[in-house]
Amino acid sequence: MYTNSKNSNLITKIISTEKAKEAKMLLWDKWTKKYTPIWENFKRGNTFKLLQYYWKEEENEHFHKIEKEKTSLNQSVKFSYIQIKKDIWKRWITKQTKLIQQYKEKRWFKSLVEEFEYVSDEYKKGEIKDDIFVVNIKELENKENNEELYKCVKHIFLIKVLIQILMMVIEQCIKEESSGKMEIVLDNLIEKLNKEKYAKIESENIHQENLNHKEYNEMLERHKSKDEDSFKQLL
User: Fold this and answer.
1) How far apart are CA 188 and CA 209, in angstroms?
2) How many domains does the chain have?
3) Per-residue pLDDT averaged across 14-43, rounded?
């Protein structure tokens, strides 16, 4: 009985955790969609492209290390490419969020945060109803009397903005990588089709040349026969 009860509680806890994760993801999606125009505008800027460059450098550095380890260990050892990518994503995002104080001083980051605050003043009025980081709404509503709590929430908000930026950077790099691979596939396909086309044309040309040569020889034979007959008549 005790074992069954323990297992039941564990299952209930797991289900509750999964539901909490799903709820957080829904709230995160809702939050990001709310500021879609700002995100899209930011993606068109040079800062976003620079962050993409930093991410690619980080990714390549980790892949080189893994390749060296693979070579030194055993060539036959198989590595999950997707799992490696996920690990690199987590490491990079964790590393960057630890540098939040540095990001806060950057002009582009300040400007972006100001845009969010201009669009919505929820953090100023304490009217947040669905923020994924808020545990106690009543405490937040009294944030004017609790400066430390407000600073904490503000800090988390900035981390949230940074994480979303980093996620967009990785997502865009994946899209470009996939697009690049597709272009290579298409280029190879076009090259193959062109080769087949040229091979077919060349084959047809050779066949036509053979036919022309055959017809020419037949024509020569006919003329030769006629010339011989004419010569005999003259004799």
Assistant:
1) 31
2) 1
3) 66
Residue 92, domain extent: 2-172
Distance CA 56, CA 85 (A): 11
Amino acid 23: pLDDT: 55
Residue 189 lies in a domain: no
Listed in sequence order, the residues at least 6 apart from 146 whose beta carbon sits closer than 8 Å to its beta carbon are 139
DSSP 127: -
Q: Is residue 234 part of a domain?
A: no
Hey, what are 194's tokens? Answer: 């062109």
Tell me phi and psi for residue 34, to 5 degrees: -60, -35
Cβ-Cβ contacts under 8 Å for 42 (sequence gap 6 or more) = 48, 112, 165
Burial class (CB in 10 A: 0-12, 13-18, 19+), 155: middle
The Cβ of residue 78 has, within 10 Å, a number of other Cβ atoms equal to 7
Tokens 């068109």 label which residue? Answer: 44
Q: Which residues contact 162 (CB under 8 A, 6 or more apart)?
A: 96, 97, 100, 103, 109
Q: How many CB atoms lie within 10 A of CB 49?
A: 12
DSSP structure string for 101-113 = HHHHTSHHHHHHH
Can you tell me the distance from the alpha carbon of 10 to that of 195, in angstroms, rounded to the nearest whole number? Answer: 63
Of 101, 113, 104, 89, which is closest to residue 35 (Cα–Cα)? 113
Say if 207 falls within a structural domain: no
Residue 100 in domain? yes
The pLDDT tens digits of the residues spanning 183-216 come to: 555 555 556 666 665 555 555 555 556 555 666 5
SS3 of 174, please?
A: helix
